[in-house]
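step: validate -> pass
step: tokenize input -> pass
step: predict -> running
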Amino acid sequence: MAAQTLSIAMIGTRGVPARYGGFETAVEEIGTRLAARGHRVRVYTRRGNSEGGAAEYRGMQVVTLGALRRRSLETLSHTALSVAHLVAHRTDVAFVFNAANAPFLPVLRAARVPAATHVDGLEWRRAKWGGAGRRYYRAAETAAVRWSDAIIADAAGIRDYYEHTYGVPSALIAYGAPSATTTGDGSALADLGLVRDGYHLVVARFEPENHVHTIVDGYAASRATRPLVVVGSAPYAAGYSGRIRDAAARDPRIRLLGGVWDQAVLDELYGSAFTYLHGHSVGGTNPSLLRAIGAGAPVVAYDVAFNREVLRDAGEYFRTPGELTGLLEKAEADPGLTRERGAAGAHRARDYDWDDVAAAYGRLAEDLAARRTPGPFRRARRSPEPWKELS
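step: predict -> pass
step: emit ->
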């Protein structure tokens, strides 16, 4: 049981079950553990994310609400409805995911619900946003600093960014990694025409900053004999997705599986991959990367500070298609060394434990309820100096 029983709201994601990305994975993994410790956890979930609009999931209360189905409004419209519900049904504290939701923080403050914001990565760097979108995300980032009772960073690079840019501290709480096991009987692989250690794997939304195009181009130029299996889709990026589909159509070694939502199948894919190719570049600690090393998959990652922070010496790194081409051929030329890197990654995954993550959120919830957090930082101002360290 928890030392202090609290009611805790988790707002700003697609909710549970986790079927989409890092925020949803964090909400499910953290929320279930907080509930098991005796806290009353309420998760706000978008309509369509769970069958039948269930009111309870793994010990958590689920409040299902709608959203406008437009990229620029989907998150904000759902969060607006969630905050309205929360004001009418207050909890002791709230965890708000995504700095984009910062405009609603003053409403929570007016309702006297202390809130910590998990700011994620540098959303304004994403290519999918135009000038107006990027300006909004920079403004929302600033608002999160000025209105949150605490800021949560999931990577040291994000913590350092907020320290450098705004001069404010963050609670550094990374994600957790799944355990390094593959429990399936291999039937999922057989159904897909795959065999263990017989393919290179990519799992990512098709967005430019995830560099799926770089991976596909680098693989296509290689002499790799194992196929490239690409899991992912992009509901708002038809042009970018078309570029990837065209590349796959020219190379029979490239297989596009689309979105795979069955977690057991994903576990088999991660746990049986010869390498996992990770192109994410603007987020913090990425759950897909943690899932890969937890499964013991040798990782070749895009060379940014976030990925090096997780992998350290267990990873290989690329920036260009040509660099990836060489690394793929090197991996296939020495399977033994490649498997050793996978074992090193699995060892590194032990440092990312969901029980520890949930315990840190529990302590932060107690600090929020007791008004022991350092924020909000009403006078915080952005630094005029550009931040280079995350590139």
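step: describe -> The radius of gyration is 21 Å.
step: cleanup -> pass
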